Amino acid sequence: MPREIVDRVEMPKQSPEERRSNFREVALGLDPELAVREAKRCIQCKTKPCTKGCPVEVEIPDFIALMAQGKFREADAKIKEKNSLPAICGRVCPQESQCESLCTLGKKFTPVAVGALERFAADWTREHSPESGCEKAGSDGPAVCAAADGIERPSARVAVIGSGPAGLTCAAELALMGYRVDIYESLHETGGVLRYGIPEFRLPKAIVNQEVDYVRSLGVRIFTNVLVGMTLDLNEMLAKGEYQAAFIGTGAGLPYFLEIPGENLNGVYSANEFLTRVNLMKAYKFPEYDTPVKIGRRVAVVGAGNVAMDAARTSLRLGAEDVKIVYRRSRTEMPARLEEIENAEEEGVQMFLLTNPVRIISDGKGGVGAMECIKMELGEPDASGRRRPVPIPGSEFTMDVDTIIIAVGQGPNPLLARATEGLALNRRGNIEARDEYGATSIPGVWAGGDIVTGAATVISAMGAGKRAARGIDIWLRSQS
Amino acid sequence: MFRIMEKRLLAPAVHQLVVEAPLVARSARPGNFVIVRTNETGERIPLTIADYDPEKGSVMLVVQEVGKSTMDIGMMEAGDSFADVAGPLGQATPIKKVGTVVGVAGGIGVAPLLPQIKLHKEIGNHVITIVGARTRDLLILKDETEQASHEVIFATDDGSFGYHGFVTAALEELIKQGRQIDEVTAIGPVRMMQATCNLTRKHNIPTLVSLNAVMVDGTGMCGCCRVTVGGETKFSCVDGPDFDGHKVDFDELASRQAFFRDEENLARELAEQKRGGCRCHEK
Questions:
Q1: Contact A291, A281 (CB under 8 A)
Q2: Between vectors from CA A359 to CA A357 and to CA A364, what angle results, nearest 5°?
Q3: Which of A474, A431, A444, A457 is nearest to A169 (CA)?
Q4: What is the pLDDT along chain A (480 residues), one digit of tens a residue?
Q5: What does the buried/exposed string (b/e) look like for A420-454 if buried means 16 or more CB atoms within 10 Å of the residue's CB?
Q6: B201 has which bridge partners?
Q7: Cα distance between residue B128 and residue B100, in whole Å
Q8: Would you call A394 exposed, middle or buried from its count of C-beta atoms within 10 A (0-12, 13-18, 19+)?
Q9: What kind and span of H or E run contains B262?
Q10: Measured between beta carbons, which residues in chain A are less than 8 angstroms from residue B220?
Q11: What is Dmax (Cα atoms) for chain A?
């Protein structure tokens, strides 16, 4: 096998020493030469297992073949047939457990760097001329695209609630089919978790802006500062005939806490609060921006998912001297992407595994003085199939910290469900999806993403948005 | 959008603003709040809706200049616009026919109290309102309070107007007079609400308080506004802002409100420097 097929191109990154003190993007992207070289590694196998690993069904070998010929714009267009947000997916999808994990080349060597190629196609195209989107779309009102697939469809209006990955994808898909779509966003900015959750150094906000602009260019209108459920009533919007269908993609917006003593002391943040202050409100630029964030010298981040890694790495960039991840299971069970764990460790984040917080001790002035933890060991597998962590009696110890960030997951935000009569929820408060498309108990209303599944990935939310768009399309056509 | 339709100075550094926000005005209920942001670099701050007019499409807000963001609002004039106004947020205050209700307000707390007592009066409760301020000039919305109540007691710490003393002392006198009081609603500074609750607890009078915890999104997403109520953690923004005052851990609330004090002071000082001195004493 020639070396150029065996050796996967590595994406250049900022060095750990440099990047731990700035908020610029860590992974720098490929250049055209590297991109073509990596694209040529794809052996264009007949079975295309990679495509089965993609929740939004991107024709991966086809776009890679175009890239191998240097046709980056065409490659981007090929991706966009299935995925409206490639610059985001190329950055934050867990390719190693999706498309790349199934790559034929990966069985003997290393898989093709699908994510890096997707990112390059999107970045190159954007930098070399912005996409035109739907020609009829104007800033003055809703325009409709000619349906990309040529199918005649009824004239209908769809409300999409939430402008995160699920909502943006659903909106773009529907707009491409020729429907009129309005997105309602509760915050003052678009993007949902892409904006408030994922830090600049992993997903630059300029990229989010451009992807949102692309969705707007398809004729989608976006209304910020509107909380459906509080500002507007979903059932009323449908009953009045303003909209013929709706999609709910409101995300997992209610942080879980540990429910241990001392958790309301000053210096204990939910990861959501900490990241929202920094990402959405730009507290890292305080006092130029008005929202403050306080970071101590010694930070413990509880949890080991991607959000925990983001919080730990953000803490370093804000100037914390010592940052620890505290996780009750072992390294194998850490839910974060391997790449993010490695990035965090390279930057100096320490891992305290098989360790569980027991209580937070006050400094006597309302703040955090220390955190008492207990050592854990792995016992029998639990309901999730992972070995259950059990405390080792007598192994308590005190960790010297002054800031604690809780990143142990989020539940569904209650606002919309509470105010929307007839919307059935499951036991955990997630919206009940009744079929593969995400139909809810209210006719004409679909839901998808974290509000249905509980906290998951950007790409799975996008997949759900896409399926819901299909369900909405079938329904609207059946109604006419 | 979110244009300031009217602005009026109620007391030194206390402003009343009528802001265009038709969708909020249509859905607002007593006890709801909005999150506002003055401009692109501004923070999201919660302000209780003091009045709302669905026909005019406006909400009324009362803002006291205490930090940088509220000073920024103080500098805005009619015709200027907020970058964002989101709401209505929070649960509407549970207002039921109970008999006699005493509304207790400290400082600008009278503004958020107004829509509540109005509704109490409307549904047939007898409304006694006690409004306290440090001094006469700081008593605001006197006419509106009188209109919305059956009886009003104004109290000043320095005795410059009305009852000489704290609102709690005035309330205690009412209780001692043997007046039947079925419910108390207290809105104002944390220590004032705490003192009110300490008094009403002794006399077994159910007491509702409206908490002004620090918030970021105001929609349940961040948990910054968590408070301990009856030993449980609640989020002021989605579970409140009104809670059973006898169960609230006020000391924790006061401590959490002070978490960003250094940053708030710095931001205010920088803003004052930029403007050449503070405006607190301008009329």
A1: yes
A2: 135
A3: A457
A4: 666 777 899 899 999 999 999 999 999 999 999 999 999 999 999 999 999 999 989 999 999 999 999 999 999 999 999 998 999 999 999 999 999 999 999 998 999 999 999 999 999 998 887 555 554 444 444 455 667 677 888 889 999 999 999 999 999 999 999 999 999 999 999 999 999 999 999 999 999 999 999 999 999 999 999 999 999 999 999 999 999 999 999 998 899 999 999 999 999 999 999 999 999 999 999 999 999 999 999 999 999 999 999 999 999 999 999 999 999 999 999 999 999 999 999 999 999 999 999 999 999 999 999 999 999 999 988 887 888 999 999 999 999 999 999 999 999 888 898 899 999 999 889 999 999 999 999 999 999 999 999 888 899 999 999 999 999 999 999 987
A5: beebebeeeebbebeeebbbbebebbbbbbbbbbe
A6: none
A7: 8
A8: exposed
A9: helix B261-275
A10: 253-254, 413-415
A11: 70
Check CB contact of A411 with chain B, cutoff 8 Å.
no
- Is-contact A158 A174, C-beta < 8 A? yes
Q: How many residues does chain A have?
A: 480
3-state secondary structure string across A144-157: CCCCCCCCCCCCCE
How far apart are the C-alpha atoms of A469 and A83, rounded to whole Å? 13
Chain B contact for A305 (CB, 8 A cutoff): no
User: Are A402 and A298 a contacting pair, CB within 8 Å?
Assistant: yes
Residue A301, both tokens? 């981040």
The count of other CB atoms within 10 Å of the CB of residue A231 is 22
pTM of the model: 0.94
Minimum-distance CB partner of A226 among B23, B233, B238? B23
Q: Give residue A460's Cα distance to chain centre.
A: 9
* C-beta of residue B209 within 8 angstroms of C-beta of residue B242: yes
* Integer Cα distance of A288 and A180 in angstroms: 39
Interatomic CA distance for residues A55 and A52, integer angstroms: 8
Domains and CATH numbers, chain A: 3-128 (1.10.1060.10), 157-253+411-479 (3.50.50.60), 257-408 (3.50.50.60)
C-alpha B47 chain-centroid distance: 8
Q: Do A291 and B44 touch (CB under 8 A)?
A: yes
**In contact, A431 and A387? CB cutoff 8 Å:** no
Which pair of tokens denotes residue A176? 């491409």
Q: What crossing angle do the helices spanning A72-80 and A60-68 adopt, rounded to 10°?
A: 170
Distance CA B124, CA B128 (A): 13
Would you say B243 and B207 are in contact if contact means Cβ atoms under 8 Å apart?
no
Separation in Å, CA of B72 to nearest CA in chain A: 11
Q: How far apart are CA B86 and CA A298, in angstroms?
A: 36
* Tokens, residue B111: 């503004």
User: Of B83, B85, B222, which is closest to A273 when you measure between CB atoms?
Assistant: B222
CB-based contact B31:B115 (threshold 8 Å) = yes
DSSP classification of residue A386 = S
Strand segments, DSSP code E, in B157-254 are: 163-164, 183-187, 207-210, 226-229, 232-235, 242-244
Q: Can you tell me the ipTM of this complex?
A: 0.93
Q: Which residue of A has its CA nearest to B2?
A: A225
Q: Please name the residue of chain B whose CA is at the shortest distance from the CA of residue A185.
A: B86
Q: Left (φ > 0), alpha (ψ -120 to 50) or beta: where does A48 sit?
A: left
> What does the alpha-carbon distance between residue A394 and residue A405 come to, in Å, rounded to a whole number?
25
